[in-house]
């Protein structure tokens, strides 16, 4: 049975007569709809559209790949039902040529095709992030050098406005920020001219774009304060004594705010300023004995709200009209200089990129725009190239349209001509403002369209996909309850009305569990909020795993760890705390971190090896490498470099010590022990060899050699998340190769390139974290990374962390209001804000809060069956009362109060206080009057308060005034501490002599009986040209390299074949005893091996083993410490789903039991390693004695 589409989904799939915008709610199946629309277009029996005449654009490569795969899978399903359908087969072939890609891939193809109309090469490439960062800074150096050299008065003002007295980092960052911002606008020069015109002369402050913003904000603030004052006046009559004491103050506030509201509507700037200055703060006095009366407390809280709001308005109108205009005049030439700097920087940056024949992603968009669009006298027209491209496509489909910017939007208009554009998105999930996403583009398009009517077939039109097929109804109802009260045009840029509400479309078994829970956590002062939240989450996970049932594959089952997710607004800062605390409870947790590639331990170690190869006299990289697991020098050994040599550099000290030792201490000077000197000598020899290779090898080739010789990949693979670490090392090698393709500076140049990335605070992209893929662990991730994902149970944590705002910066940038900054007074060494900057701060905060509200929406809509949100504070009751005091409406939340909230936790607290099930919470917050009975399911929303205390550690302190007995006790305590320290023994001293890396054969050699060490060489080797050891090696090499199928047919020919290929030398080939080989091929073991479908020869491994396997006598406390075991198994084969290990031996013995006893430990280590690395159980361990021609089973 096929998928059952809703009516709106059917309309989105089948409507074809013109442009459509589809507003798709969270979990509404928009990707499935988009895929089905493509399928229906290309399989239409009447008017089929070829797959290569559709342009499908997404915003990530992963999304494009998923889209292509889904379409291909769907066509394959149709072909299974109708395998001879020629139309389907043709469409499947055309799909390989279809334009299903990211916007940047599409732009890249356009540029290559029409490069002749641009002044760029057709083979231009996209620069690496690190490469571009270096170029940006070079371009900035050129720009600032020019402007500093001109000694322009206004540029000097600009520079001093951001100077910290030491450097111009802040100025550089401002120019970078504004340049990146402008790249999202199609015509940057026009934008700069328009925003500079805001600073023109001869305008009234109230009529400027900034004055209007400030006035509108104050109108809303005044209305909110007025509603608070009216509530205070109304409830004050409930207690006569309190009313009599504060009546005049409340009446004064009410009269002032009513008058202030009128002045804001019609008064001049100076009249508003004067009116605000007339506000009487007064003193809130309560009658004796009424200080803690609930009514008095609430009235005082309301008065504080009014005072703080008026004080905020007073700050905005702190300057007179004349002073504001003076600031505008002062800022105009400075802003103009800033704009000139940005233009110059852009030109320098472009020239540097052209010299390297590279572009960045914004260049792809702007070059495409140059090809498609012309702008003359403010009019936009489309080019002939745009016509040619638009005629190629029957439809242009764009996913995640809410994240488009103005450049991208104009590209889509050019290639669709607004006739065949199909866009999908959800403005409530637009959370990429920091990437210049502009949700207002989606809103404008949606608001300009009528709802689609199939009977009228009207275009352009909008279709709304409101059904959510992800979450339980109790979750979707909880989301609706919250956002119906929080989201508005003032905060969120839209009303959360019926069109936006989620309609549950998922099918789940009935439950009495609340879909949304809010946990209010009270933690002690001085405690870390995240620590207590993590512990609370751990306890909840334990509880839910035993009490809750989730739906999986139609069955009700207990949740696994992998069914839980913890979502954080700023995961990079807090995830280590949550992982650490969860692990204490035995709960596995993972976090996929993509940043900090160069700071990864394995990458830092590899770079330090390269640094000392390039220049070995660098002490810090040298110490890092020598004391790493690769070489394992101890602190005592490193200190010998200083004790036994006066050389200023450690590398010089090593050479000095080696020289003194080799001369036999003729000077009489002492040197370190022989074993240490030999290790120094081996290390310097290895570095010297690498340095010689660096002279003739590329950086990539050198790194491959370094990886092989040092075994760094094997070492890091044995650590936690080893696969990702190995991939990071390989990624670093790829970066070196990419660098050398575009530079002739070799190893030194690559090292300097990486060092400059560190200097500029940039990074490279690391390998994907494989630890979290498919693991049964709690997922910890940022809310941004969770977009598009879903989890049965979600925790949204750290919600009480305050919002971070860019509105506090000296220079502010806004797409509509332009640029504004603080005014600097060099003589007073201070800065103050200006009216334009205050206006931008107001609007930026509003935009930021709108995006934060959308981030919260994304977080809440990830949960399938249960959503738990954590609001933490040091005093829950105090926080509740503070929020309750600001809730002036009955059954609603004032938009100004939402706008002024300091954290997502405040928003959720507001919603909780309004929910029907939260009567006790309202009572605690003393705001029962705000509740209005509503038709809301009570089981949707559950709140609970948890109070935690921190255990205090006992500390013995001695004060100066303590008596003699206390002094004696203190002396005894100190004496005890000193004695303990004197007798202290390093607990890991037994590990000092155990190497970091061991091999199975070496460990076995330590326990080898004396009689085996004195045995004669194997008899079959005889006295030939090769030594006995060399002949044994030849036999092993033959067995390792031979083809068992060819060996069975003709052993002699196989020896000859390997000799001809150069695998065996002539002497080695001659040493192979064919009779012994034939004996092996005729053995039952050989038949078992050749019958296996999975045979592994010379299988190398690198695993961690307990140190007790190296030294069984080590103390018990240290027995679980790890060392790295490396080795290679001669042969292993799979038999009945289990492994059989085979080890070839050439020892000359009479009794097979001797071999079994001799190599038992080695075989045991092989068994342990193979089970770790392959995941298969080892059923048998065998030694094949080449001398005896038989297999010997070894019990381990």
Task: Describe, in plain words, how this protein is organized in 3D.
The longest helix has 35 residues, at 321-355. A seven-stranded parallel beta sheet has the order 3-2-8-9-1-11-10, sandwiched between helices. The chain has a seven-stranded parallel beta sheet with strand order 18-19-17-20-25-14-26, sandwiched between helices. Strands 27, 28, 29, 30, 31 and 32 form a six-stranded mixed beta sheet that branches. β23 (823-825) and β24 form a beta hairpin. The radius of gyration is 37 Å and the shape is globular. By secondary structure, it is of the alpha/beta class. α1 crosses α2 (30-42), α5 (103-113) crosses α15 (361-372) and α20 (529-547) crosses α21 (571-584). It contains 47 helices and 32 strands. The protein has six domains: 7-124 and 361-465, P-loop containing nucleotide triphosphate hydrolases (Rossmann fold), CATH 3.40.50; 129-184 and 324-356, Enzyme I, Chain A, domain 2 (Orthogonal Bundle), CATH 1.10.274.50; 209-317; 498-592 and 775-805 and 847-947, Rossmann fold; 597-760, PCRA, domain 4 (Orthogonal Bundle), CATH 1.10.486.10; 997-1193, Alpha-Beta Complex (Lambda Exonuclease, Chain A). Mean pLDDT is 86; it is low at 952-964 and 1007-1024.
